[in-house]
Specification:
35% of the residues lie in helices and 21% in strands. It is of the alpha/beta class. An eight-stranded mixed beta sheet has the order 1-16-15-11-10-9-7-8, sandwiched between helices. It has a five-stranded parallel beta sheet with strand order 3-2-4-5-6, with helices on both faces. A three-stranded mixed beta sheet has the order 12-13-14, covered by helices on one side. It folds into two domains: 237 residues, Rossmann fold, CATH 3.40.50; 152 residues, 3-Layer(aba) Sandwich (Rossmann fold).
Length: 413
Protein backbone atom coordinates (compact mmCIF):
# COMPACT_ATOMS: atom_id res chain seq x y z
CA UNK A 1 0.00 0.00 0.00
CA UNK A 2 1.29 3.42 -0.90
CA UNK A 3 1.75 6.28 1.54
CA UNK A 4 1.63 10.01 0.98
CA UNK A 5 3.97 12.69 2.31
CA UNK A 6 4.99 16.25 1.46
CA UNK A 7 8.36 17.93 0.95
CA UNK A 8 9.35 21.56 0.41
CA UNK A 9 11.82 22.72 -2.23
CA UNK A 10 15.33 23.15 -0.82
CA UNK A 11 17.48 26.23 -1.21
CA UNK A 12 19.93 24.23 -3.31
CA UNK A 13 17.29 23.52 -5.94
CA UNK A 14 15.90 27.05 -5.85
CA UNK A 15 19.32 28.60 -6.49
CA UNK A 16 20.37 26.20 -9.23
CA UNK A 17 21.63 28.20 -12.21
CA UNK A 18 19.64 27.74 -15.40
CA UNK A 19 21.23 27.76 -18.84
CA UNK A 20 19.03 28.55 -21.77
CA UNK A 21 19.53 26.29 -24.75
CA UNK A 22 17.22 27.91 -27.24
CA UNK A 23 15.78 31.30 -28.10
CA UNK A 24 12.18 32.16 -28.77
CA UNK A 25 10.71 33.77 -31.82
CA UNK A 26 10.21 37.50 -31.34
CA UNK A 27 8.19 38.00 -34.52
CA UNK A 28 4.92 39.79 -33.85
CA UNK A 29 2.66 37.39 -35.70
CA UNK A 30 -0.85 36.22 -34.94
CA UNK A 31 -1.73 33.04 -36.78
CA UNK A 32 -4.08 31.79 -34.04
CA UNK A 33 -7.56 31.04 -35.26
CA UNK A 34 -9.90 34.02 -35.38
CA UNK A 35 -12.81 31.72 -36.24
CA UNK A 36 -14.90 31.44 -33.08
CA UNK A 37 -17.06 28.67 -34.56
CA UNK A 38 -15.11 25.97 -32.72
CA UNK A 39 -12.04 25.51 -30.55
CA UNK A 40 -9.47 23.18 -32.08
CA UNK A 41 -6.58 21.59 -30.20
CA UNK A 42 -3.38 20.53 -31.91
CA UNK A 43 -1.62 17.51 -30.43
CA UNK A 44 2.14 17.42 -30.97
CA UNK A 45 3.36 14.02 -29.82
CA UNK A 46 5.68 11.13 -30.81
CA UNK A 47 3.72 8.88 -33.10
CA UNK A 48 7.06 7.40 -34.17
CA UNK A 49 10.62 7.41 -32.86
CA UNK A 50 12.24 6.35 -29.59
CA UNK A 51 9.53 7.97 -27.44
CA UNK A 52 6.57 6.48 -29.28
CA UNK A 53 5.79 4.46 -26.14
CA UNK A 54 4.53 7.77 -24.66
CA UNK A 55 1.94 8.16 -27.42
CA UNK A 56 -1.02 6.13 -26.06
CA UNK A 57 -1.44 8.04 -22.77
CA UNK A 58 -0.91 11.36 -24.57
CA UNK A 59 -3.69 10.67 -27.06
CA UNK A 60 -6.02 9.08 -24.52
CA UNK A 61 -5.67 11.97 -22.05
CA UNK A 62 -6.42 14.62 -24.69
CA UNK A 63 -9.42 12.74 -26.06
CA UNK A 64 -10.71 12.01 -22.57
CA UNK A 65 -10.48 15.67 -21.57
CA UNK A 66 -12.26 16.74 -24.76
CA UNK A 67 -15.02 14.19 -24.11
CA UNK A 68 -15.55 15.63 -20.62
CA UNK A 69 -15.64 19.17 -22.01
CA UNK A 70 -18.16 18.20 -24.68
CA UNK A 71 -20.31 16.33 -22.16
CA UNK A 72 -20.56 19.65 -20.29
CA UNK A 73 -21.57 21.56 -23.42
CA UNK A 74 -18.27 22.34 -25.10
CA UNK A 75 -16.13 25.47 -24.98
CA UNK A 76 -18.29 28.60 -25.00
CA UNK A 77 -21.23 26.38 -25.90
CA UNK A 78 -19.55 24.86 -28.95
CA UNK A 79 -18.53 21.22 -29.29
CA UNK A 80 -14.78 20.64 -29.49
CA UNK A 81 -13.70 18.53 -32.49
CA UNK A 82 -11.06 15.78 -32.30
CA UNK A 83 -7.51 17.13 -32.01
CA UNK A 84 -5.38 17.79 -35.05
CA UNK A 85 -2.47 15.36 -34.62
CA UNK A 86 1.14 15.93 -35.65
CA UNK A 87 4.14 13.62 -35.25
CA UNK A 88 7.20 15.17 -33.57
CA UNK A 89 8.98 11.79 -34.00
CA UNK A 90 11.59 12.54 -31.34
CA UNK A 91 13.63 14.48 -33.91
CA UNK A 92 14.04 18.27 -33.84
CA UNK A 93 13.64 18.94 -37.56
CA UNK A 94 10.57 16.74 -37.85
CA UNK A 95 9.12 18.24 -34.67
CA UNK A 96 9.43 21.80 -35.97
CA UNK A 97 7.88 20.82 -39.30
CA UNK A 98 4.99 19.24 -37.40
CA UNK A 99 4.60 22.42 -35.34
CA UNK A 100 4.52 24.52 -38.50
CA UNK A 101 1.75 22.28 -39.84
CA UNK A 102 -0.32 22.86 -36.70
CA UNK A 103 0.17 26.62 -37.00
CA UNK A 104 -0.93 26.43 -40.63
CA UNK A 105 -4.03 24.52 -39.52
CA UNK A 106 -5.03 27.52 -37.34
CA UNK A 107 -5.35 25.51 -34.14
CA UNK A 108 -6.37 27.45 -31.03
CA UNK A 109 -3.85 25.68 -28.77
CA UNK A 110 -1.08 23.09 -29.01
CA UNK A 111 -0.69 20.27 -26.50
CA UNK A 112 2.90 18.97 -26.42
CA UNK A 113 5.60 18.25 -27.27
CA UNK A 114 6.42 15.18 -25.20
CA UNK A 115 10.17 15.43 -24.54
CA UNK A 116 11.86 18.62 -23.38
CA UNK A 117 14.17 18.70 -26.41
CA UNK A 118 11.20 18.53 -28.77
CA UNK A 119 9.47 21.34 -26.89
CA UNK A 120 12.67 23.38 -27.16
CA UNK A 121 12.61 22.73 -30.91
CA UNK A 122 8.99 23.83 -31.36
CA UNK A 123 7.99 26.49 -28.84
CA UNK A 124 9.41 29.33 -30.94
CA UNK A 125 7.25 28.28 -33.90
CA UNK A 126 4.08 27.87 -31.85
CA UNK A 127 4.33 30.76 -29.40
CA UNK A 128 5.86 33.02 -32.03
CA UNK A 129 2.54 32.65 -33.86
CA UNK A 130 0.77 33.71 -30.66
CA UNK A 131 -0.72 30.27 -30.10
CA UNK A 132 -0.79 28.86 -26.58
CA UNK A 133 1.35 25.76 -26.06
CA UNK A 134 1.08 23.51 -23.01
CA UNK A 135 3.22 20.44 -22.37
CA UNK A 136 2.19 17.81 -19.86
CA UNK A 137 5.50 15.95 -19.97
CA UNK A 138 8.42 18.33 -20.71
CA UNK A 139 10.36 18.78 -17.47
CA UNK A 140 13.66 20.49 -18.35
CA UNK A 141 14.50 23.46 -16.07
CA UNK A 142 15.61 25.37 -19.17
CA UNK A 143 11.96 25.70 -20.25
CA UNK A 144 11.21 27.96 -17.28
CA UNK A 145 12.81 31.02 -18.84
CA UNK A 146 12.27 30.55 -22.58
CA UNK A 147 11.36 33.61 -24.63
CA UNK A 148 7.76 32.62 -25.30
CA UNK A 149 5.95 35.96 -24.87
CA UNK A 150 3.91 34.31 -22.13
CA UNK A 151 2.35 31.67 -24.39
CA UNK A 152 4.08 28.53 -23.09
CA UNK A 153 2.82 26.64 -20.06
CA UNK A 154 3.39 23.22 -18.62
CA UNK A 155 1.63 21.10 -16.07
CA UNK A 156 4.56 18.68 -15.75
CA UNK A 157 6.86 19.77 -12.93
CA UNK A 158 10.36 21.06 -13.64
CA UNK A 159 13.18 18.70 -12.80
CA UNK A 160 14.16 21.30 -10.21
CA UNK A 161 11.36 19.69 -8.21
CA UNK A 162 11.97 16.06 -9.28
CA UNK A 163 15.74 16.06 -8.73
CA UNK A 164 15.59 16.73 -4.98
CA UNK A 165 12.96 14.03 -4.52
CA UNK A 166 15.26 11.48 -6.18
CA UNK A 167 18.24 12.69 -4.18
CA UNK A 168 16.36 12.41 -0.90
CA UNK A 169 15.15 8.91 -1.75
CA UNK A 170 18.72 7.74 -2.36
CA UNK A 171 19.86 9.14 0.96
CA UNK A 172 16.81 7.79 2.79
CA UNK A 173 17.96 4.34 1.62
CA UNK A 174 21.29 4.96 3.40
CA UNK A 175 23.61 5.03 0.41
CA UNK A 176 27.03 6.61 0.89
CA UNK A 177 28.78 6.59 -2.51
CA UNK A 178 26.61 7.68 -5.41
CA UNK A 179 27.16 7.61 -9.19
CA UNK A 180 25.06 9.86 -11.43
CA UNK A 181 24.69 9.03 -15.13
CA UNK A 182 22.50 11.09 -17.49
CA UNK A 183 21.78 11.52 -21.16
CA UNK A 184 23.39 14.66 -22.55
CA UNK A 185 20.33 16.65 -23.58
CA UNK A 186 17.93 19.20 -22.08
CA UNK A 187 16.17 16.59 -19.97
CA UNK A 188 19.27 14.76 -18.76
CA UNK A 189 21.45 17.76 -18.05
CA UNK A 190 18.76 19.64 -16.14
CA UNK A 191 17.80 16.62 -14.08
CA UNK A 192 21.46 15.76 -13.38
CA UNK A 193 22.20 19.27 -12.15
CA UNK A 194 19.17 19.24 -9.86
CA UNK A 195 20.05 15.87 -8.29
CA UNK A 196 23.70 16.78 -7.92
CA UNK A 197 22.90 20.13 -6.29
CA UNK A 198 20.62 18.50 -3.73
CA UNK A 199 23.02 15.66 -2.93
CA UNK A 200 25.87 18.14 -2.51
CA UNK A 201 23.78 20.33 -0.22
CA UNK A 202 22.96 17.30 1.91
CA UNK A 203 26.63 16.27 2.17
CA UNK A 204 26.49 13.15 0.00
CA UNK A 205 29.61 11.63 -1.59
CA UNK A 206 29.21 11.78 -5.38
CA UNK A 207 31.81 9.44 -6.87
CA UNK A 208 30.76 9.90 -10.50
CA UNK A 209 28.75 12.50 -12.45
CA UNK A 210 28.80 11.81 -16.16
CA UNK A 211 26.64 12.53 -19.22
CA UNK A 212 26.52 10.38 -22.34
CA UNK A 213 25.41 10.84 -25.94
CA UNK A 214 21.95 9.23 -26.12
CA UNK A 215 22.41 8.61 -29.85
CA UNK A 216 25.65 6.66 -29.36
CA UNK A 217 25.78 3.03 -30.43
CA UNK A 218 28.33 2.09 -27.78
CA UNK A 219 28.16 3.04 -24.11
CA UNK A 220 31.33 1.23 -23.02
CA UNK A 221 33.07 4.39 -21.76
CA UNK A 222 30.34 5.41 -19.33
CA UNK A 223 29.85 1.79 -18.24
CA UNK A 224 33.57 1.48 -17.46
CA UNK A 225 33.42 4.73 -15.47
CA UNK A 226 30.48 3.45 -13.45
CA UNK A 227 32.16 0.14 -12.68
CA UNK A 228 35.40 1.87 -11.64
CA UNK A 229 33.50 4.31 -9.42
CA UNK A 230 32.46 1.40 -7.19
CA UNK A 231 29.31 3.21 -6.04
CA UNK A 232 26.68 1.58 -3.87
CA UNK A 233 23.95 3.50 -5.75
CA UNK A 234 23.73 4.38 -9.45
CA UNK A 235 21.17 6.97 -10.56
CA UNK A 236 20.35 6.62 -14.24
CA UNK A 237 18.61 9.58 -15.90
CA UNK A 238 17.63 8.28 -19.32
CA UNK A 239 14.98 7.23 -21.80
CA UNK A 240 14.74 3.84 -23.51
CA UNK A 241 18.47 3.70 -24.23
CA UNK A 242 18.84 3.33 -20.48
CA UNK A 243 17.77 -0.31 -20.83
CA UNK A 244 21.00 -0.95 -22.74
CA UNK A 245 23.03 0.75 -20.03
CA UNK A 246 21.32 -1.20 -17.25
CA UNK A 247 21.77 -4.49 -19.09
CA UNK A 248 25.49 -3.80 -19.59
CA UNK A 249 25.98 -2.74 -15.97
CA UNK A 250 24.19 -5.85 -14.70
CA UNK A 251 26.30 -8.04 -16.99
CA UNK A 252 29.42 -6.36 -15.62
CA UNK A 253 28.57 -7.74 -12.20
CA UNK A 254 28.03 -4.34 -10.61
CA UNK A 255 26.30 -4.65 -7.24
CA UNK A 256 25.01 -1.09 -6.96
CA UNK A 257 21.34 -0.38 -6.37
CA UNK A 258 19.76 1.32 -9.37
CA UNK A 259 17.70 4.52 -9.18
CA UNK A 260 15.83 5.61 -12.30
CA UNK A 261 13.54 8.40 -13.51
CA UNK A 262 10.28 8.72 -15.45
CA UNK A 263 11.98 7.81 -18.74
CA UNK A 264 12.31 4.21 -17.51
CA UNK A 265 9.07 4.00 -15.51
CA UNK A 266 7.88 0.75 -17.08
CA UNK A 267 6.38 -2.21 -15.18
CA UNK A 268 7.96 -4.46 -17.84
CA UNK A 269 11.44 -2.98 -17.39
CA UNK A 270 13.07 -6.36 -16.74
CA UNK A 271 11.71 -7.70 -20.02
CA UNK A 272 12.82 -4.55 -21.85
CA UNK A 273 16.34 -4.93 -20.48
CA UNK A 274 16.38 -8.59 -21.48
CA UNK A 275 18.02 -9.81 -18.29
CA UNK A 276 18.13 -13.58 -17.78
CA UNK A 277 16.86 -13.44 -14.21
CA UNK A 278 13.82 -11.40 -13.10
CA UNK A 279 15.68 -10.78 -9.85
CA UNK A 280 18.34 -8.74 -11.67
CA UNK A 281 16.41 -5.49 -11.20
CA UNK A 282 14.94 -6.29 -7.80
CA UNK A 283 15.55 -3.29 -5.56
CA UNK A 284 15.50 -0.78 -8.42
CA UNK A 285 13.67 2.35 -7.30
CA UNK A 286 12.49 5.36 -9.28
CA UNK A 287 10.81 8.76 -9.14
CA UNK A 288 8.24 10.01 -11.65
CA UNK A 289 5.68 12.82 -11.85
CA UNK A 290 2.35 11.30 -10.99
CA UNK A 291 -1.06 11.89 -9.45
CA UNK A 292 -2.54 10.31 -6.37
CA UNK A 293 -5.91 10.28 -8.07
CA UNK A 294 -7.54 6.84 -8.41
CA UNK A 295 -10.82 8.35 -9.62
CA UNK A 296 -9.06 9.83 -12.65
CA UNK A 297 -7.30 6.55 -13.37
CA UNK A 298 -10.60 4.66 -13.18
CA UNK A 299 -12.26 7.15 -15.51
CA UNK A 300 -9.44 6.95 -18.04
CA UNK A 301 -9.52 3.14 -17.93
CA UNK A 302 -13.23 3.19 -18.71
CA UNK A 303 -12.65 5.67 -21.53
CA UNK A 304 -9.78 3.62 -23.01
CA UNK A 305 -9.83 0.04 -21.69
CA UNK A 306 -6.77 -0.88 -23.78
CA UNK A 307 -4.55 1.73 -22.12
CA UNK A 308 -1.93 0.15 -19.86
CA UNK A 309 0.53 3.07 -19.45
CA UNK A 310 -0.64 6.22 -17.65
CA UNK A 311 2.62 8.18 -17.61
CA UNK A 312 1.83 11.94 -17.65
CA UNK A 313 -1.82 11.34 -18.60
CA UNK A 314 -3.17 13.46 -15.68
CA UNK A 315 -0.84 16.34 -16.58
CA UNK A 316 -1.89 16.30 -20.23
CA UNK A 317 -5.56 16.17 -19.23
CA UNK A 318 -4.91 19.28 -17.13
CA UNK A 319 -3.33 21.12 -20.07
CA UNK A 320 -6.49 20.62 -22.13
CA UNK A 321 -8.84 21.53 -19.28
CA UNK A 322 -6.91 24.59 -18.07
CA UNK A 323 -6.86 26.04 -21.59
CA UNK A 324 -10.59 25.40 -22.00
CA UNK A 325 -11.31 27.19 -18.72
CA UNK A 326 -9.12 30.12 -19.76
CA UNK A 327 -11.16 30.47 -22.95
CA UNK A 328 -14.36 30.39 -20.87
CA UNK A 329 -12.93 33.00 -18.49
CA UNK A 330 -11.94 35.28 -21.36
CA UNK A 331 -15.12 34.66 -23.32
CA UNK A 332 -12.94 34.11 -26.38
CA UNK A 333 -11.34 31.27 -28.33
CA UNK A 334 -8.56 33.54 -29.57
CA UNK A 335 -5.23 32.61 -27.91
CA UNK A 336 -4.12 36.24 -27.72
CA UNK A 337 -7.22 37.00 -25.66
CA UNK A 338 -7.47 33.94 -23.39
CA UNK A 339 -3.73 33.49 -22.70
CA UNK A 340 -3.74 35.95 -19.79
CA UNK A 341 -6.49 33.94 -18.12
CA UNK A 342 -4.59 30.61 -17.90
CA UNK A 343 -2.71 31.48 -14.72
CA UNK A 344 -5.78 33.18 -13.25
CA UNK A 345 -7.94 30.06 -13.31
CA UNK A 346 -5.43 28.20 -11.11
CA UNK A 347 -4.73 30.84 -8.45
CA UNK A 348 -5.42 29.91 -4.80
CA UNK A 349 -7.48 33.04 -4.10
CA UNK A 350 -10.30 31.61 -6.23
CA UNK A 351 -13.01 29.10 -5.36
CA UNK A 352 -11.68 25.54 -5.60
CA UNK A 353 -13.22 23.37 -8.31
CA UNK A 354 -12.26 20.03 -9.83
CA UNK A 355 -13.84 19.60 -13.27
CA UNK A 356 -14.40 21.65 -16.38
CA UNK A 357 -18.15 21.76 -15.81
CA UNK A 358 -17.93 22.78 -12.15
CA UNK A 359 -15.29 25.43 -12.83
CA UNK A 360 -17.10 26.74 -15.93
CA UNK A 361 -20.31 27.17 -13.95
CA UNK A 362 -18.50 29.13 -11.23
CA UNK A 363 -17.00 31.40 -13.89
CA UNK A 364 -20.50 31.90 -15.27
CA UNK A 365 -21.55 33.12 -11.82
CA UNK A 366 -18.79 35.73 -11.91
CA UNK A 367 -16.53 33.94 -9.44
CA UNK A 368 -12.75 33.59 -9.56
CA UNK A 369 -11.71 29.93 -9.59
CA UNK A 370 -8.82 27.76 -8.44
CA UNK A 371 -8.80 24.72 -10.75
CA UNK A 372 -7.60 21.71 -8.79
CA UNK A 373 -5.99 19.65 -11.50
CA UNK A 374 -6.22 15.90 -11.85
CA UNK A 375 -2.42 15.89 -11.45
CA UNK A 376 -2.61 18.02 -8.29
CA UNK A 377 -2.96 21.67 -7.38
CA UNK A 378 -1.16 23.33 -10.31
CA UNK A 379 -0.98 27.03 -9.35
CA UNK A 380 0.87 28.32 -12.43
CA UNK A 381 3.59 30.86 -11.65
CA UNK A 382 4.51 33.86 -13.82
CA UNK A 383 6.68 31.63 -16.03
CA UNK A 384 3.87 29.19 -16.73
CA UNK A 385 5.31 26.49 -14.44
CA UNK A 386 3.33 24.62 -11.78
CA UNK A 387 4.48 25.56 -8.29
CA UNK A 388 3.55 22.22 -6.77
CA UNK A 389 3.62 18.64 -7.96
CA UNK A 390 3.01 15.05 -6.93
CA UNK A 391 5.64 12.37 -7.49
CA UNK A 392 5.40 8.63 -7.14
CA UNK A 393 8.17 6.48 -5.73
CA UNK A 394 8.00 3.29 -7.80
CA UNK A 395 9.92 0.15 -7.00
CA UNK A 396 10.73 -3.31 -8.33
CA UNK A 397 10.40 -5.71 -5.40
CA UNK A 398 10.23 -9.50 -5.08
CA UNK A 399 6.64 -9.42 -6.31
CA UNK A 400 7.36 -7.08 -9.20
CA UNK A 401 6.45 -3.47 -9.89
CA UNK A 402 4.79 -1.43 -7.14
CA UNK A 403 4.26 2.16 -6.04
CA UNK A 404 5.65 2.71 -2.56
CA UNK A 405 4.30 6.20 -1.86
CA UNK A 406 3.28 9.55 -3.27
CA UNK A 407 5.18 12.68 -2.36
CA UNK A 408 3.83 16.22 -2.69
CA UNK A 409 6.52 18.74 -3.49
CA UNK A 410 6.18 22.50 -3.59
CA UNK A 411 8.21 25.62 -4.15
CA UNK A 412 6.39 27.28 -1.26
CA UNK A 413 7.75 27.87 2.22
Amino acid sequence: MSTHKALALSAAALTLSLTLTACGNDLDLDFGSDDDSEFTYGLLYPQTGSLAFLAPPQVAAVEYAISEINAAGGILGTEVPPPVEADEAGESGQANEAANNLVADDVNAVIGAAASAMTQATYGTVTGAQIVQCSGSSTSPDLTQVDDNGYFFRTAPSDLLAGPVLAQQILDDNHADIALIARADDYGNGYLNAVEAELTALGANIVLSEAYDPDATNFSAVISSAVEADADAVALISFQEGTQLMAALIESGIESQFYITDGLNDPDLGQAIGVASPDAITGTTGVAPSADNPDFNDGLRQFDPDLDVFQFAPHIFDCVTAIALAAESAGSMNPSEYVDHIAEISRPDGTECNSFEECRDLLGQGQDIDYQGTSGNIDFDDNGDPTSATFEIFHFGPDGYEILEYIEYTTGD
